[in-house]
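Repro:
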Amino acid sequence: MIDLDDLDRALLRDLAMDATQSAGALGRKHGLSQPAAWRRIKRLEDAGIIKGRRLVLDREALGFGVTVFLGVKLAVKGRVNFEDFEAAISAIPEVQSVQHVLGLYDYRLRVVARDLADFERVLRRRIMAMPGVGNVEANVLLSEESRMGPIG
């Protein structure tokens, strides 16, 4: 763990908003040279604070207008191998994320589909047809607010 100063936090906030910003642009914004900004960013990466950068796609522009969160309870925990379930569910292209959780359900899935009829097809033919799947609860995403996280 490293100590973060105000400048580190400002750089993290800016990168969280747009990870494509160059070290030169960030340096100019915060009164640093390009090499100084790059060294700070590299230090944050080396410390594991910045774990990577990712591309955010517009699902609707790609034809995926529906996002559904599924709570999945496995039928019999003693007989179901969690790793096998995770590998099989991750192979379904519409399943965007798989989270093993503690609580009412064993897994929380983020599933995208073209529309509700497409989601129903994915649910019935792919997810519910998997061995070990017991109860499933669906929550359709109506809107989403993007947050940067706890940067300070």
